[in-house]
């Protein structure tokens, strides 16, 4: 997942949280920091809440420092 070349982010307020975008609308998170590997990324956002719409090949996203999940 993280190795596919999509957009990646590391949470500046908690560097153990790593995020990656996958094809269509799919954003995943790993909370293991440097121990993150492909199997450690859990689905965080998918196209379901958006009526099943698809998006860019890799959906762009930002981390909002005001909102923690």
Notable characteristics:
69 residues, mainly beta, four-stranded antiparallel β-sheet, 4 strands, 0% helix, globular
Descriptive overview:
With 69 residues, this protein is mostly beta strands. The chain has one domain. It is 0% helix and 26% strand. It has a four-stranded antiparallel sheet with strand order 1-2-3-4, with no helix packed on it. Strand 1 and strand 2 form a beta hairpin. The model has no long low-confidence stretch (mean pLDDT 82).
Radius of gyration: 12 Å
Biggest β-sheet strands, sense, barrel: 4 strands, antiparallel
Strand content: 25-35%
The helix tally amounts to 0
Mean pLDDT reading: 82
For the termini, the CA-CA separation is 21 Å
The strand order across the widest sheet is: 1-2-3-4
**Helix fraction by DSSP (H/I, runs of at least 4):** under 10%
The class by helix and strand makeup works out as mainly beta
Low-confidence region ranges:
none
Tally of separate domains: 1
Order of helices and strands: EEEE
Principal-axes geometry comes out as globular
Number of strands: 4
Task: Please provide a brief summary of the model.
By secondary structure, this protein is mainly beta.
């Amino acid at each position: 997942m993280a190795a596919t070349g999509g957009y990646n982010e590391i949470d500046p307020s908690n560097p153990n949280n790593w995020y990656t975008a996958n094809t269509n609308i799919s954003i995943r998170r790993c909370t293991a920091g440097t121990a993150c590997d492909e199997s450690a990324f859990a689905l965080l956002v998918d196209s379901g809440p958006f009526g099943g719409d698809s998006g860019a090949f890799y959906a762009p996203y930002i981390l909002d420092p005001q909102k923690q999940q």
